[in-house]
């Protein structure tokens, strides 16, 4: 077990002796800016008290310049949101100047402190702080550029665009009205970042070689605390004792519609205190900059709780020092270093995919969620970064990593199983933070497919942030049976998820396709994936399904037309691919040539060369039938105008799954009948 070190104010945060050159560089500026000077202070003196006063004046002058840059940027753009950046300018400055560790020359330095701006409408404050700190990503014509097309300072912080931005948080900065939705995501992301730090520290730190030791800071606004996800995530952060997490609340009493009192009257400090956070209030940010600094630094002394601060409105050396510690760690702990280095390089060992099981047609049939469990069990042996989470459904989802402990502070922070409770939205937001932490962790988040609606905003941000979260969604259709339409994702879920740009949505038909889905999902560390899995057993391990072919999104499972074109093409996904296969057998017995196609991932198929897509679905074969126990929306693109789409346009029904399938026409006989009718036209 890694030691729990006593928290103290780090050396880079302590008052330093001011050099003569430093004071000379500021002296005339301060004498000009602050007139008259207090009679009891001497800017030219060199004792400790006068040096402290001198630095306070420097800080005040710097904050004034930050604010002028904010005003200048908004005036230049003729639009923008200046309220939050101006109000929180002191907090942002103190964080970047006196509290956080980072290296602008190496923005991805692993042991940097992480900063998340959940109140994304204030992104101008972060851009200016990055600009003044020396980050090259925002050095444009001497100041941060406007949010123009292609700009590295977009209208909300995007981690894939601007170095120094850890996660993508949602807001529109360069608009006349701040329209920041969905808020609160950054809070959950910050919890995920802090969890990843605690988990990695527990696995790799040694008493004489601490190589994972950084903090997470997050600024949130009134809108963030109103959104439920922030409460879900904050509850978990306290339960997990994430003491290196500091959440700063910009309590400015305003939202778009007016005063927060229109719809909000909670005592937020009391709420966080009830959640068992260390709570601090800074009442006078205008006149007492030292109070802000002291509040931020006091969080370093907290050993058990995350810190909530209610605010009523030379870094390069540390990165070389860390690399020295890492070299020592490599020499002293070579085995642990190898694993740590693998994780920092992405967490994928050469040949990891060979661990995925193969499922011959002779194997006993199972639900695809059962095949998923077998895949995860094998992947856990070769992927050191695999970390699992489920929203109170680990047993139902078959998504528990057996043989691994739960993540729990202080008992087992190295544990790979995260218990989220009934908090789907927070689970997805926290998983984004874990994926973007940079420590090689590969999070998967499991729940029922119908509950994906609770998580949709976070899933969308996974795609926007290039966060390689793997979403495991079981109970994927009306096939779950007796639980009825409240739990049957029969209509809109798959269609909505497939519409999310960059998200890879898989619906595997059997064990081999399930293994293939995991192969693609794990390999794509910059793209989120969602694997929709059945609760009911599939009819067979189909001959012709292929783990390797899943990466193309769609492929030919069987075809008896030899060198000619088939009379008809049957296209299926998930458990319904078996219906296509059985229907094809019946039609072939009557002398028809039939091609069966699995369209396991639409997006991957759409990305294939046109030649390959036309090879699988020849344009001249217009007689096509698609079979999927979900919404028909989107299928017309694959079956064409003359084809038939067999789907579900109601909310499902309660009953045994075979009876439910029969009610909605998902039987071998009905699929065969539809195909014959189409062939006769």
Automatic annotation (TrEMBL):
Function: Catalyzes the reversible transfer of a two-carbon ketol group from fructose-6-phosphate or sedoheptulose-7-phosphate to glyceraldehyde-3-phosphate to yield xylulose-5-phosphate and erythrose-4-phosphate or ribose-5-phosphate, respectively. Could act as a stress sensor involved in adaptation process.
Coiled coil (residue ranges): none
Gene Ontology terms for molecular function: metal ion binding; transketolase activity
Keywords: Magnesium, Metal-binding, Thiamine pyrophosphate, Transferase
Native organism: Vitis vinifera (Grape)
Signal sequence interval, chain numbering: none
Database matches in Pfam families: Transket_pyr (PF02779), Transketolase_C_1 (PF22613), Transketolase_N (PF00456)
Catalytic activity: D-sedoheptulose 7-phosphate + D-glyceraldehyde 3-phosphate = aldehydo-D-ribose 5-phosphate + D-xylulose 5-phosphate
InterPro entries xrefs: THDP-binding, Transketo_C/PFOR_II, Transketolase-like_C_2, Transketolase-like_Pyr-bd, Transketolase_fam, Transketolase_N
E.C. designation(s): 2.2.1.1
CDD domains per record: TPP_PYR_DXS_TK_like, TPP_TK
Superkingdom as given in the UniProt entry: Eukaryota
SUPFAM superfamilies: Thiamin diphosphate-binding fold (THDP-binding) (SSF52518), TK C-terminal domain-like (SSF52922)
Entry's Gene Ontology cellular component terms: chloroplast stroma
Residues of the Transketolase-like pyrimidine-binding domain: 366-540
Assembly behavior: Homodimer.
Family as reported in the entry's similarity comment: Belongs to the transketolase family.
Cofactor(s) needed: thiamine diphosphate; Co(2+); Mg(2+)
Protein name: transketolase
């Amino acid at each position: 077990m890694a030691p729990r070190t006593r928290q103290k104010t780090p050396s880079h945060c302590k008052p330093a002796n001011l050099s003569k050159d430093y004071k000379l560089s500021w002296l005339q500026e301060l004498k000009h800016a602050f007139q008259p000077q207090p009679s009891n202070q001497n800017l030219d003196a060199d004792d400790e008290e006068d040096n402290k006063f001198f630095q306070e004046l420097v800080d005040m002058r710097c904050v004034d310049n930050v604010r002028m840059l904010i005003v200048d940027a908004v005036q230049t753009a003729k639009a923008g949101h200046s309220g939050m950046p101006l109000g929180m300018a002191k907090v942002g400055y103190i964080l970047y100047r006196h509290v956080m560790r980072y290296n602008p020359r190496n923005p991805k330095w692993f042991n940097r402190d992480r900063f998340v701006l959940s109140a994304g409408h204030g992104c101008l404050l972060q851009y200016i702080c990055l600009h003044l700190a020396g980050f090259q990503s925002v050095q444009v014509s001497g100041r941060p550029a406007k949010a123009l097309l292609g700009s590295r300072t977009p209208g909300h912080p995007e981690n894939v665009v601007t170095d120094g931005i850890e996660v993508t948080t949602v807001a529109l900065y360069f608009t006349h009205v701040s329209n920041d939705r969905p808020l609160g995501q950054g809070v959950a992301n910050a919890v995920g970042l802090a969890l990843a730090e605690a988990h990695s520290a527990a696995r790799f730190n040694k008493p004489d070689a601490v190589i994972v030791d950084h903090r997470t800071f997050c600024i949130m606004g009134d809108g963030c605390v109103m959104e439920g996800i922030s409460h879900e995530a904050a509850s978990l952060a306290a339960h997990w004792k994430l003491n290196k997490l500091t959440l700063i609340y910009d309590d400015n009493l305003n939202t778009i519609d007016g005063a927060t009192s229109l719809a909000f009257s909670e005592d937020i400090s009391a709420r966080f205190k009830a959640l068992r956070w260390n709570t601090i209030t800074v009442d006078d940010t205008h006149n007492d900059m030292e109070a802000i600094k002291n509040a931020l630094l006091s969080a370093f002394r907290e050993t058990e709780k995350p810190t909530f601060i209610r605010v009523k409105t030379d870094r390069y050396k540390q990165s070389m020092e860390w690399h020295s510690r890492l070299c020592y760690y490599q020499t002293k702990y070579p085995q642990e270093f190898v694993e740590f280095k693998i994780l920092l390089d992405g967490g994928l060992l050469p040949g990891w995919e060979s661990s995925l099981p193969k499922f011959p047609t002779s194997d006993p049939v199972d639900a695809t969620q059962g095949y998923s469990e077998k895949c995860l069990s094998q992947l856990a042996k070769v992927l050191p970064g695999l970390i699992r989470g489920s929203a109170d459904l680990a047993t139902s989802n078959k998504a528990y990593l057996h043989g691994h402990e739960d993540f729990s502070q202080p008992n087992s922070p190295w544990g790979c199983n995260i218990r989220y409770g009934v908090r789907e939205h927070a689970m997805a937001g926290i998983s984004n933070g874990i994926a973007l932490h940079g420590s090689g962790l590969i999070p998967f988040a499991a729940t029922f497919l119908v509950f994906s609606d609770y998580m949709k905003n976070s899933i969308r941000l996974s795609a926007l942030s290039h966060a390689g979260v793997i979403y495991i969604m079981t109970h994927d259709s009306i096939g779950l049976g007796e639980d009825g339409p409240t739990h049957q994702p029969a209509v809109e879920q798959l269609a909505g998820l497939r519409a999310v740009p960059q998200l890879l949505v898989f619906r595997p038909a059997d064990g081999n396709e399930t293994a293939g889905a995991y192969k693609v999902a794990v390999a794509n560390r910059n793209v989120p994936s969602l694997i929709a899995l059945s609760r009911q057993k599939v009819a067979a391990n189909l001959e012709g399904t292929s783990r390797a072919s899943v990466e193309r999104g769609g492929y030919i499972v069987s075809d008896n037309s030899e060198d000619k074109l088939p009379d008809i093409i049957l296209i299926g996904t998930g458990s319904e691919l078996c219906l296509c296969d059985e229907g094809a057998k019946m039609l072939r017995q009557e002398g028809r040539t039939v091609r069966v196609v699995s369209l396991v991932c639409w997006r991957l198929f759409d990305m294939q060369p046109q030649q390959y897509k036309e090879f699988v679905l020849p344009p001249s074969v217009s007689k096509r039938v698609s079979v999927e126990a979900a919404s028909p929306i989107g299928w017309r693109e694959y079956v064409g105008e003359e084809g038939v789409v067999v789907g579900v346009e109601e909310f499902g029904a309660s009953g045994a799954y075979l009876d439910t399938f029969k009610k909605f026409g998902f039987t071998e006989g009905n699929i065969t009948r539809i195909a014959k009718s189409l062939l006769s036209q």
